[in-house]
């Protein structure tokens, strides 16, 4: 093989190595993102429960105020 062919092979191997590192980095970031989304999902479920309780209490308060006026 001549020198140009060796340079092309090294260049392509370098690109391949960089693509592999990028893929590994993306995999790690996806795992972190999934964990964050799961934490947010749990937080949103708790928030929805609390909002539901607040809505029930508000409706009950409104109904009791209407009954007092009568």
From TrEMBL:
Keywords: Membrane, Transmembrane, Transmembrane helix. The chain crosses the membrane at residues 44-64. The keyword Membrane applies. This is Methyl-accepting chemotaxis protein.
């Amino acid at each position: 093989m001549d020198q140009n062919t060796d340079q092309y092979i090294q260049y392509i191997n370098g690109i391949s190595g960089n693509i592999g590192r990028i893929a590994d980095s993306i995999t790690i970031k996806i795992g972190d993102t999934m964990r964050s989304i799961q934490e947010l999902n749990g937080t949103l479920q708790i928030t929805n429960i609390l909002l539901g309780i607040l809505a029930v209490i508000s409706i009950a308060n409104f109904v009791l105020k209407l009954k007092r006026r009568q």
